[in-house]
Design goal:
About 85% of the residues lie in helices and about 0% in strands. It has six helices and no strands. It has helices at about 1-45, 50-70, 75-105, 110-135, 140-170, 175-210.
Length: about 210
């Protein structure tokens, strides 16, 4: 009887990991597609906020690929991977900072039409990703950090639409830079949260594996 219960648990774990892999594969494909779309729109529109969003989508795609690779791995491995995810978010923040600096020395008024269309498509895609990942947000550190990235994307999508509206209203490029700066702060805070959670997970794992002195 106990063997049957054990088999049931194994089947449940395998089914959960299969669902995780399926969801991560879908959001990975969505983020790769939105990265290409946003990068092209950023180049055409001369928009820093769109470029910030495209870099974030690329970072998310890498994050989801890594998350997919370690589904079913040990807690220590997932903690180390979460550290890498935090560093990827931090890298995206630094890339945004460089773009803002470049745009400040090369001012231009973005095309609000391109910003609005790309921003709306990106927000819709990110909404699908968040909906898919929400059931796993309180799971292990691997899926929790993936959900954190997706939640950031929703804020990013709304911010880009606000930037497009402000560019249209004021006929100037400063709203685009302002939103890009806000996204920079958001990325930095998210990186800190993911890195802190990963570090705590690694510390707990290290403590649990420490042999007790007799």
């Amino acid at each position: 009887m106990s063997d049957c219960c054990g088999c049931g648990k194994i089947v449940d774990v395998a089914a959960l990991q299969a669902r995780q892999r399926r969801v991560l594969g879908i959001v990975l494909a969505i983020n790769l597609a939105t990265f290409v779309m946003m990068a092209g729109a950023a180049w055409w529109s001369h928009s820093s906020s769109l470029l910030s969003g495209s870099l974030d989508n690329l970072g998310d795609a890498l994050t989801y690929a890594i998350s997919l690779a370690v589904v079913g791995a040990s807690a220590r491995t997932k903690g180390r991977v979460a550290l890498l995810k935090g560093l990827l978010i931090l890298g995206a923040a630094l890339a945004v900072a460089v773009q803002i600096g470049w745009r400040l020395t090369h001012p231009a008024v973005p095309l609000f039409e391109g910003m609005g269309i790309a921003g709306a498509l990106n927000l819709a895609a990110n909404g699908v990703c968040l909906w898919l990942l929400t059931p796993f947000r309180h799971g292990d550190v691997n899926l929790a950090s993936a959900w954190e990235c997706s939640r950031n994307d929703i804020a990013e999508g709304v911010a880009v639409l606000l930037a497009a509206l402000a560019v249209w209203v004021f006929g100037a490029g400063w709203p685009d830079l302002l939103i890009a700066g806000a996204l920079l702060v958001m990325f930095l805070r998210s990186a800190v949260r993911v890195l802190r959670a990963a570090w705590q997970a690694l510390r707990v794992q290290a403590t649990s594996n420490t042999p007790v002195a007799r």
